[in-house]
From TrEMBL:
Its main location: mitochondrion. This is Enoyl-CoA delta isomerase 1, mitochondrial. The keyword Mitochondrion applies. It catalyses: (2E)-tetradecenoyl-CoA = (3Z)-tetradecenoyl-CoA; (3Z)-decenoyl-CoA = (2E)-decenoyl-CoA; (3Z)-octenoyl-CoA = (2E)-octenoyl-CoA; (3Z)-dodecenoyl-CoA = (2E)-dodecenoyl-CoA. It comes from Henosepilachna vigintioctopunctata. It is found in: Mitochondrion matrix.
Length: 283
């Protein structure tokens, strides 16, 4: 009942779905709520590769807050593009960056992770494109991952000469375990969909975006006969210590990030990486 009335505040987009915009302006994140199921599709739409900048993260954070307030029944996180789910952090947020902006940027990333990782309703990453680094982190924050075949996913930070923060690492360890995570992280491994499925980094493989989306929807059916309260509280208990480890150390984590990226060799490496990206193409 409450869900219906809460959702009725959301403007009608087209038959059976409601679109939601926290600012009312064209967005980097579009939220559509299915009127029948109450499930929200959160579409990342920052061309060309959904790299995570301050503006996208701020919108995502605000969308997650609204979904929490409106008691969404579940979230499917996907990309507008069939090529890239998210290319991770926008390297320009780290390269030759100003302190004020980078502080806001990193705080926004922390905020999004805390909200998504701890979201009370079921969450699915519909990984319809490549998902390196921060893109992988978003997927890891969800409860279930469906990935389109012949894409890649992983925390490749060491390949950029940077160190994945503890909460990135914990998000991976909680899914594939310490041994697999250590090998993956230290080598900056990008897994193909098939490899990711084999080690449990993703839960299902899909033929294409449509198939991935329909498999994502299926996930919510698992909870048909489960008390939403029992489900949400169990998730909270399981995830609490991982979330608190960051919540209690946000300031320290921010300082570490800024110190790390300011290092001369890191700046040089990021500059070279940006250049190499411009020269190369991934099919
Ligand atoms: C103590 C803690 C310290 C530090 C922790 C910091 C943590 C960082 C985590 C991160 O997320 S770092 C970012 C890592 N991301 C990547 O390594 C991904 C790089 N991108 C790619 O591998 C590919 O672009 C792609 C597989 C995602 C997509 O390939 P494709 O479809 O062939 O597109 P293009 O490569 O042609 O890219 C189009 C366009 O976009 C630019 N670009 C790509 N990724 C980024 C990015 N992450 N940031 C900024 N810009 C990016 C790329 O250069 C192209 O630009 P053009 O101007 O040439 O069009």
């Amino acid at each position: 009942m409450f869900l219906r009335s809460a959702l009725s505040l959301w403007p009608l987009a087209r038959n059976g779905t409601r679109s939601y915009s926290s600012t009312g302006v064209t967005k980097l994140v579009a939220v559509t709520v299915d009127d029948q199921t109450g499930i929200a599709t959160v579409n990342l739409q920052r061309p060309p590769v959904n790299s995570l900048n301050l503006e996208l993260l701020t919108e995502l954070s605000s969308s997650l807050t609204d979904l929490e307030k409106n008691k969404s029944r579940g979230i499917i996180l996907k990309s507008y593009s069939d090529a890239v789910f998210s290319a991770g952090i926008d390297i320009l947020e780290m390269y030759k960056c100003e302190e004020e902006r980078v502080t806001l940027f990193w705080s926004a990333l922390q905020e999004v992770w805390i909200k998504l990782y701890g979201h009370f309703a079921p969450t699915v990453a519909c990984i319809n494109g490549h998902a390196p680094a921060g893109g992988c982190l978003l997927a890891l924050s969800c409860e279930y991952r469906v990935m389109v075949k012949e894409k890649t996913i992983g925390l490749n930070e060491t390949k950029l000469g940077i160190v994945a923060p503890q909460w990135f690492i914990a998000s991976l360890v909680n899914i594939i375990g310490q041994r697999q995570s250590e090998v993956a992280l230290t080598t900056g491994k990008m897994f193909t969909t098939e490899e990711a499925l084999r080690i449990g980094l993703v839960d299902e493989m899909a033929e294409n975006t449509e198939d991935a989306f329909s498999k994502s929807l299926e996930f919510f059916k698992k909870f048909k006969n489960i008390s939403p309260f029992a489900r949400a509280q169990t998730k909270a208990f399981i995830r609490e210590s991982t979330i608190q480890a960051l919540v209690k150390n946000r300031e320290k984590d921010l300082k570490m990030f800024i110190n790390e990226i300011r290092k001369e060799n890191v700046q040089k490496g990021l500059g070279q990486y940006l250049e190499s990206l411009k020269k190369r193409k991934v099919s």
